[in-house]
Design a protein that fits this description.
The structure is a single chain. This protein is mostly helical. It is built from 14 helices and three strands. A three-stranded antiparallel sheet has the order 1-2-3. Helix 2 runs parallel beside helix 12. One of its GO terms (molecular function) is amino acid transmembrane transporter activity. This is Amino-acid permease inda1. It is found in: Membrane.
Length: 357
């Protein structure tokens, strides 16, 4: 066991070779199969603390896919298919996250999975995957800026969405000025808000189901019998996986942030273990309660996609309970979730991947 660090160091040293000139010109640097082409004296700043990594892991992927997209999945597959589909995707994601965490602890380098593919599979494969990942985030960024602007229509639909797109873009630009510390602090605060909202909805959902709020009385498993636990057969069940895969997007950012963690050997294992609790508690429990208090044949769920918060099953459940203030509060949470998970993660994921390439 004592010889392992020396072996790793030998591999690092043997992988390095002088940088070659490209058609863009020459520059001083080194070529490392672990870190790619690195400019001389330009390492990433390790400013992410343990608390940042914990919140990125727990609340990093709690976004519109849960708060809004789950409504479309509920109508497509029914409450049982909703829970089972998210659970299956969540289990696969948990295994993937654990594997990524092992690599991130051993090799906490810039580029994470892009770098690992270059080193352990093939550089050409890593090149294709790296650009695919970066372009995917860059493509999603303008979409999410528009989606965040749509959530504002819940309060004001008389203003042009372009105004809010510009406002959110300026906010993101200001966050990027502060580097990874700004990203970590923003995610820390916004994740706390999202976690509090999920916990509050679980409590409220239990109260609604037991008849403590609203005029529907005790619901129990009523909506699991009528209209039923499953909808649209196997096609409906399979359709849930598409929404679930979208909802869990962004979890891999924990591995991408390893290169900027102050203590990756301690922070990464702790953060990766939090993924289980996020899947089990914030997703599965919320979706199970959601299926108990919102019928899958509700026509208002037809528009549950993107950021149409008026069709969010969470907002509908609160409105049906006759609570006047909470729908606006939950709409604010959805706005925060879109900005946090999607827009802020877009800039972090794409820039770090391109920097590694």
């Amino acid at each position: 066991m004592s010889s392992q660090p020396a072996v790793v160091d030998d591999e690092k040293n043997s992988a390095k070779e002088p940088a070659v000139n490209s058609h863009h010109g020459s520059y001083e640097g080194s070529r490392d199969e672990e870190t790619g082409v690195v400019a001389k004296g330009q390492p990433l700043q390790r400013n992410l603390q343990n608390r940042h990594m914990q919140m990125i892991a727990i609340g990093g992927a709690i976004g519109a896919g849960l708060f809004v997209g789950s409504g479309g999945a509920l109508r497509t597959g029914g409450p049982a298919a909703l829970v089972i589909g998210y659970m299956i995707v969540g289990i696969m994601l948990m295994f993937t996250t654990q594997a990524l965490a092992e690599m991130a602890v051993l090799y906490p380098v810039n580029g994470a999975f892009y770098t690992y593919v270059c080193r352990f599979v093939d550089p050409s494969w890593g090149f294709a995957m790296g650009w695919d990942y970066a372009i995917a985030w860059l493509t999603v960024l303008p979409f999410e800026l528009v989606a965040a602007s749509i959530t504002i229509k819940f309060w004001r639909d008389d203003l042009n969405m372009g105004i809010w797109v510009a406002v959110f873009l300026i906010i993101l630009a200001i966050i990027q000025i502060f580097g990874v510390r700004g990203y970590g602090e923003v995610e820390f605060v916004l994740s706390i808000i999202k976690i509090a909202a999920c916990t509050g909805f679980i409590i409220l959902g239990i109260v609604i189901n037991c008849g403590g709020v609203g005029d529907k009385g005790y619901l129990g498993a009523k909506y699991w019998h009528d209209p039923g636990a499953f909808q649209n057969g196997f096609n409906g069940f399979a359709g849930v996986f598409v929404v679930a895969a979208f909802a869990f997007g962004g979890t891999e950012l924990v591995g991408l942030a390893a290169a900027e963690s102050a203590n990756p050997r301690k922070a990464i294992p702790m953060a990766s273990k939090q993924v289980f609790w996020r899947i089990a508690f914030f997703y599965i429990v919320n979706l199970f309660i959601l299926g108990l208090i919102v019928p899958s044949n509700d026509p208002r769920l037809m528009g549950s996609s993107g950021a149409n918060t008026k069709a969010s099953p969470f907002v509908l459940a609160i409105q049906d309970a006759g609570i006047n203030v909470l729908p606006s509060i939950f709409n604010a949470v959805i706005t925060i979730a879109v900005i946090s998970v999607d827009a802020n993660s877009c800039t972090f994921g794409s820039t770090r991947t391109m920097q590694a390439m």
